[in-house]
Design a protein that fits this description.
- There is one protein chain.
- The protein is of the alpha+beta class.
- The chain is built from four helices and seven strands.
- The protein has helices at residues 3-12, 55-65, 88-97, 118-121; strands spanning 17-20, 23-34, 39-47, 52-53, 71-77, 105-109, 114-117.
- Strand 1 (17-20) and strand 2 form a beta hairpin.
- The chain binds zinc ion.
Length: 129
């Protein structure tokens, strides 16, 4: 699957919805390509008390449930459908899932294609200091 196809798949999962007074989800969607070649999807979940998690971690949970921890590529899109880079928590989370994930690539822009490696986003992980 190309990055454009990954981003298009992520856009199909965008579904901003308020599930009640204290719970919303689906404003951001992500597609991860595991090292096993499978693709995993997820959406953000936001709770009023501050709990919840990002689409990348939601997709990673599905991947880990499937027994994979290494991620080759990530395409994450916001409510406007455009790619967005991972937040600091997701950078750290993905880095700790597997040492291989320092090579995980993130889609930054579809046209022209622009990606960035996790090692560039998180150049000095605490495990190496
Ligand atoms: Zn995040």
């Amino acid at each position: 699957m190309t990055y454009k196809e990954m981003a298009a798949l992520a856009r199909t999962h965008l579904n901003p919805k308020q599930y009640g007074e204290f719970f919303s989800a689906g404003v951001v969607a992500a597609v991860l390509e595991g090292a096993n070649g499978k693709y995993y999807t997820g959406v953000n979940i936001d709770l009023a008390c501050g709990l919840g998690f990002c689409a990348e971690r939601s997709a990673a949970a599905a991947m880990i449930t499937d027994g994979e921890t290494a991620i080759r590529r990530v395409a994450c899109v916001g409510q406007d459908g455009k790619p967005m880079p991972p937040c600091g928590s997701c950078r750290e989370f993905i880095r700790q899932l597997s040492p291989e994930n320092e090579n995980t690539e993130f889609l930054l822009c579809e046209e022209p294609l622009e990606t960035i490696k996790l090692s560039e986003l998180l150049p000095s992980p605490w495990q190496k200091i």
